[in-house]
Amino acid sequence: MAKKSVGDLKGDDLKGKRVFVRVDLNVPLDEHQKITDDTRIRAAVPTIKYLIEHGAKVILCSHLGRPKGVTPKYSLKPLVPRVSELLGVDVEMADDCIGEEVETKVAALPDGGVLLLENVRFHKEEEKNDPEFCKKLASLADLYVNDAFGTAHRAHASTEGVTKFLKPAVAGFLMQKYYSFYDWKKYAICCIFLDLLFSILYHSEECPPSSMQELDYLVGAVGNPTRPFAAIVGGSKVSTKIGVIESLLGKVDLLLLGGGMIFTFYKAQGYSVGSSLVEEDKLELAISLLEKAKSKGVSLLLPSDVVVADKFAADANSMIANMGSWPFGDAMNLQPHGVVVAMDRVVPASSIADGWMGLDIGPDSIKTFSESLDAAKTIIWNGPMGVFEFEKFAAGTDAIAKKLADLSANGVTTIIGGGDSVAAVEKAGLADKMSHISTGGGASLELLEGKPLPGVLALDDA
Ligand SMILES: Nc1ncnc2c1ncn2[C@@H]1O[C@H](COP(=O)(O)OP(=O)(O)O)[C@@H](O)[C@H]1O
Ligand SMILES: O=C(OP(=O)(O)O)[C@H](O)COP(=O)(O)O
Predict the structure, then answer these.
(1) What is the CATH number of domain 227-302+360-376+378-411?
(2) Which of 83, 105, 275, 358 has the maximal Cβ count within 10 Å?
(3) pLDDT tens per residue, range 95-144
(4) Active site includes 419?
(5) Where does 6-177 sit in CATH, by number?
(6) Which of 4, 22, 105, 237 is catalytic?
(7) Residue ranges of the domains in the chain?
């Protein structure tokens, strides 16, 4: 069913109206609270500008990270200068997303003014989709716009529940084309993928509009991919993504797993993973996925080696200054004159000692993964290969980004999805080399799976 779009609202529909806009401003921040990639902010700009230009009072709502209660490091305050700069207006910030102070600030908003609410996930009721909380959010506004594609797979209060109390509830431009094509395109699932792709666009300050030509291109690329079709899945959101793997196995010829994803697979097979990230309740699923890959004839590759660290930190101990004390296959760092100064702690991914955790894929894995991708004609990548935010553990992600950029230059279709994956590719300076860039990781994977997105379903039909 096609959904109503913010573009359908004009004149008196918007002039002087309080509009609650759910956006996905879940951008990566460094330890100084500096934005390291603003792709998601730029992707939200066209919808917000449209509302400003039509004299609406814009109330922006977003989450940032996965806080448990009020957590200063997950405040949205550091985003205010960049959002203001991109919109060309001074954005007001509220200390909360509901309550008296917020109501006062909303009441004081001029036509065309913008208020950014504090992280909606500071209230546990958000993720619980609590009806009373939904009502409080709804009471702030006259109408609702959802442009948070990256969070459309979550049935939370601000993405789904609020629509039961606030109408009209319409789609923003980032999602709009998807809805309009949803009804009649054969490959509807891909259409969303597309939508964002073309709405985001590489190095522009704002999103250029999608075009039919581009849409057709993507429909062909993902709905009916040129084979071999490869997927690369990594990152840390194991529980979100491990279920998607099952459906990917029915679509791809090659599946590469990296990032924090892999240790659940290794532990499930009885290997030692030290203190690496593991989802204990997904061990059986991991085994069944390995078996399914075999029975379907899909090449599922896990990294053979990983770089380990003694803690999850930029300054973690992951090097040995003197040779010979590490029993595994160490990778040597050579100075220009050939002197060995340190060795990465590279170990077999299946035997990580207690007290150590895998934070990147190792050089053998990079080589195997790169070679396996040589035959691919279409590649989807979601989730970094390692903790790329820390220089010591960025090599795997950088190498895969570089590989995809090279393949892209040779005509291979490369699609990158996910906040951190896009940030990693941007950081490597390779975003403009890829075929497509998407704001949603989990959301785009669930679309590929064919799952309906709650944040989409909740919107008014066109
Ligand atoms: N081995 C690992 N252990 C823990 N975290 C990891 C590991 N590899 C990657 N990560 C983390 O995964 C995060 C990104 O995961 P995710 O949110 O699933 O990706 P995306 O945002 O692209 O969808 C990054 O912050 C990265 O540091
Ligand atoms: O970053 C996001 O998703 P992604 O990491 O899959 O791209 C979205 O903001 C959703 O966040 P969530 O996975 O904490 O619900």
Answers:
(1) 3.40.50.1260
(2) 358
(3) 999 999 999 999 999 999 999 999 999 999 999 999 999 999 999 999 99
(4) yes
(5) 3.40.50.1260
(6) 237
(7) 6-177, 227-302+360-376+378-411
